[in-house]
Specification:
Structural class: alpha/beta
Order of helices and strands: EHEHEHEHEHEHEHEHEHEHEHEHEH
CATH topology of the largest domain: Rossmann fold
CATH superfamily of the largest domain: Glycogen Phosphorylase B
Shape: globular
Largest sheet: 7 strands, parallel
Strand content: 15-25%
CATH class of the largest domain: Alpha Beta
Length: about 325
């Protein structure tokens, strides 16, 4: 079976990491998976490792939300590949890819990886409904996403399958050598208590909330904060961190292609997402769990499906830096 996957990519985020794990695995299982990237900004951060993993990948430059090139390029790629299924991911790929599938009469599937709040407004709702009406089925990566799609009328329960993303946990455990190497690379003492966050530095990820919580633990000189990732708000968050009275204990290494090498140095992972973003799944929480790390996350969106409060982690009120600090202090004082 040959499947052409399509997604608009501007960097390496949760959707891209899911595809980077999924597509090589599908090919190893005999599925002829191909990738067409509607590329902008830092799309190479996804394209290069995906190609290196053996997935045939094409790119179409798409720096804006509307592109006259996207549809004919998708149609051209589909004609060359003759896929059995066309699989779109997120809004832009749904809009152009599902139209191409309809035009070429190719069976299609859509995967929704996030809650897109603009679907509550027109014309986005009508466009999304039309795209998903064409798809044979819509895959929602959490029940939270499925509920949103149903409440907005984008698709129906009878056409929706909830499939939680997974990761290959091989190689995710940290040993002492790996831990020491990760900390040495960041200039962090071996005996420090490291609070860590990974992911794109964008609006709604909660970096400011974590900084405020960290400052409430600042009286302890052994506590360090690592916020790994890049994005449009990297400069803003870096400037805010530089003004902290504990700036010398805040580490922002930027984009890290090998996320395992960063997680290996953490004692706890934080996912402080705020309500203005919501959370369609929370892959970073799963990755941290694969390392055996405790997770402190906001009690919103699909994070309540991923993190079992008091079992696999701790859920705190969104935007509540005091509650977050309290949870982190409890973990510092009871590391076992």
């Amino acid at each position: 079976m040959r499947v052409l996957h399509i997604a608009k990519v501007s960097g390496m985020g949760g959707t891209e990491r899911m595809l980077l794990g999924l597509l090589p695995h599908l090919r190893s299982e005999g599925v002829d998976a191909h990738m067409l990237v509607l590329a902008s900004d830092d799309a190479d951060r996804f394209v290069e490792p995906l190609s290196a993993a053996g997935v045939p990948t094409q790119t179409v430059l798409m720096n804006h939300d509307v592109s006259v090139r996207a549809l004919p390029m998708i149609v051209g790629a589909a004609r060359r590949l003759s896929p059995d299924i066309l699989h779109t991911h997120l809004f832009h790929a749904d809009l152009y890819g599902q139209l191409a599938a309809r035009f070429m009469r190719i069976p299609s599937v859509s995967t929704m990886q996030s809650v897109m709040t603009f679907f509550s407004r027109q014309p986005y709702r009508a466009l999304a409904r039309a795209a998903h009406a064409n798809a044979f089925a819509t895959i929602a990566i959490s029940q939270h996403v499925a509920n949103y799609l149903h409440s907005t009328g984008i698709t129906t329960p009878s056409k929706t399958e909830v499939i939680w993303p997974g990761i290959d946990v091989g190689g995710w455990r940290a040993d002492q050598d790996r831990r020491a190497s990760a900390r040495a690379g960041l200039g962090i003492p071996a005996d420090a208590f490291v609070i860590g966050m990974t992911g794109r530095v964008t609006q709604g990820k909660g970096h400011e909330v974590l900084l405020a919580a960290f400052e409430q633990l600042g009286e302890d000189p052994t506590v360090r904060l690592v916020m790994a990732g890049a994005g449009e708000r990297f400069g803003n968050v870096t400037a805010l961190a530089s003004r902290s009275p504990f700036a010398d204990r805040i580490h922002m290494p930027g984009y890290c292609p090998d996320i395992k090498s960063v997680l290996a140095g953490f004692d706890v992972a934080v996912v402080p997402t705020t309500p203005d973003l919501d959370e369609g799944f929370g892959l970073v929480a799963v990755e941290a769990m694969a390392f055996g790390l405790p997770v402190v996350a906001s009690s919103l969106g699909a994070l309540t499906e991923v993190v079992a409060d008091g079992v696999t982690g701790t859920l705190v009120r969104p935007n509540d830096d005091a509650a977050l600090a309290l949870a982190l202090r409890a973990l510092r004082d009871s590391p076992a």
